[in-house]
Amino acid sequence: MDSPPVEDQARLLEDALSVVRQQSVLMRRCLETPGKLMDALKCSSTLVSELRTSSLGPKQYYELYMSVFDALRHLSVYLRDSHPVNHLADLFELVQYAGNVVPRLYLMITVGTVYMSIPDAPVKEIMKDMMEMSRGVQHPVRGLFLRYYLSGQARDSLPTGEDEGPQGNVRDSVSFVLTNFVEMNKLWVRLQHQGHSRERDQRTKERQELQLLVGSNLVRLSQLVDLDSYKNVILQPLLEQVVQCRDVLAQEYLLEVITQVFPDEFHLHTLDQFLSAMARLNPHVNVKGIIIGLMDRLSAYAQRESEVQSPEQRQKIEEESVVALMEKLKVNKEQGQEDPKKPSENGTDAEANGEPPAPTTESTQTIEDTTVQSDSATSPQQQSKSNGDASRNRGIPENVKLFEIFHEQVMHIAGMQRLPIQDITALLVSLVNLALNIYPERLDYIDQVFAYATRETQRFQNSAD
């Protein structure tokens, strides 16, 4: 169905806001009068019924939603203060008899989330009931705002303990937020396919206005989970939902949010999962922007970690880096002297392809192994620490080969997506920054990037761009 003109939407919004204001005043009067709680709930149901409209765009609907939200906030405060005189368990059942599904669910969530904050409340059962009942609203805009209300109202009352029981635990909270996210994402994607195909651009704009509602669930998830649960419980379902929706806007936005809201430490230990999911995205997704964002974030993290170190620590690390660099140069020199006697096949192939006779993958690995052995021989105390702090370089675990991972990813993206030279250059700039911030002693990393940049520039030298 076509959306009404903007002028009509403004008039419809003002009419709806007028009803909400009128019923809100009546509701407050009833709440202030003893024995009139039922009348107050009727007024609440009437004002919430204005959210049943399908004639408002996202911006206008949001303005109406905020007006209703303010009214329901007064009801929440009253319900909390009047418990147990007006017992919340009884009210939770009572409001489920409201005639229309939208006011029924808003009132159910209002009462239910207040009930969750009461000691000894059956939080787990309340969460389950609200989640199941919320499936009754499948209209994209109405459903998104309803679930946004559910997420916001329940946020401060979600259980965070470990006990098994009716009060619930942090695993129940994670499941609750994750399920709400999945359902909201489905509604958000479905909005793209509403109305005529000629309105596709308008739908995309409307969806961009609503994307923060979906992303709020990921913010809440980041506050609930630790590294183990993120790695083993959360990330895979999140990425699976992103991949399966096959929607370009959703995939780009959600992956950006995931990289922004979860701690850098989490990304360091889950890069393999994250990058493998990116290989399954819609071909039209701007993978370049996501990779650049992740590289820049981890580069900034390494820079912050290096600034936290004391001057003595920095001096020690710099001295160790110089020793490691000199060791590599020594090994390279020795290999260079041996090369004329025993030329390798790999070196010959590389020169035949016009590539610089830099160390091959095997020789680079040999150098890295030699360096690791040298480092471990010079500082054996570092390996004796059980917490793994000693095996970190500027906050990055030594076993996470960030440069190699992103170098391979950049070359894969440039080859598979046929990127223009401008996009390839942007990727390489971020890759160089990452190498300089995390591995300042590894000049061979910079050489690899410059060699690749040279080859790509030569490939594009006759291009119109």
Automatic annotation (TrEMBL):
Q: List the record's Gene Ontology CC terms alphabetically.
A: cytosol; late endosome; retromer, cargo-selective complex
| Location of region: Disordered | 331-395
Indicate, by first and last residue, each region the UniProt record lists as having compositional bias (Low complexity). 360-371
Biased composition range(s): Polar residues:
372-390
Spell out where the chain crosses the membrane: none
Q: Which domain of life is it from?
A: Eukaryota
Which PANTHER family is this protein grouped with?
A: VACUOLAR PROTEIN SORTING-ASSOCIATED PROTEIN 35 (PTHR11099:SF0), VACUOLAR SORTING PROTEIN 35 (PTHR11099)
Tell me the protein's name. Vacuolar protein sorting-associated protein 35
